[in-house]
Specification:
Elements (H helix, E strand, L loop, with lengths): L1 E6 L2 E9 L6 E5 L7 H15 L3 H11 L4 E5 L2 E4 L6 E3 L4 E5 L4
Helix pairs in contact: 1-2
């Protein structure tokens, strides 16, 4: 399945597939590096916080995410990143998000 990520001023299409481990979760790889400075900074900080197992930092970043102009577009549907638990790890280019319905 194709999904479009809208991360500030950057738009990119990535291929995702249903996770074999998490119900309603799609996983894939970024098709290009993050080029929007705000998006790159945010997701690098998120990547570091998760890798450092800094739960307070992850919680704070998730609260920030709700205020940022980041979206996932699937077909004709556009979802705010916070609503679909968008997760991007720039170090490995991995991306995942959850949809309760297509």
């Amino acid at each position: 399945m194709k999904a479009e990520l809208v991360l500030g001023e950057q738009r990119m299409v990535c291929s995702v597939r249903l996770s074999s481990q998490k119900e309603n979760t799609y996983e894939g790889l970024l098709s290009a590096p993050l080029s929007d400075p705000g998006a790159a900074e945010f997701w690098r900080a998120y990547d570091r916080a998760v890798n450092d197992v800094s739960l307070l930092a992850v919680d704070e970043l998730e609260r920030r995410l709700a205020r940022l102009p980041f979206f996932v577009v699937v077909g004709e549907n556009r979802f705010h990143a916070a609503a679909v638990d968008l997760q991007i790890y720039p170090s490995s280019r991995q991306v995942s998000f959850s949809l309760t319905q297509e």
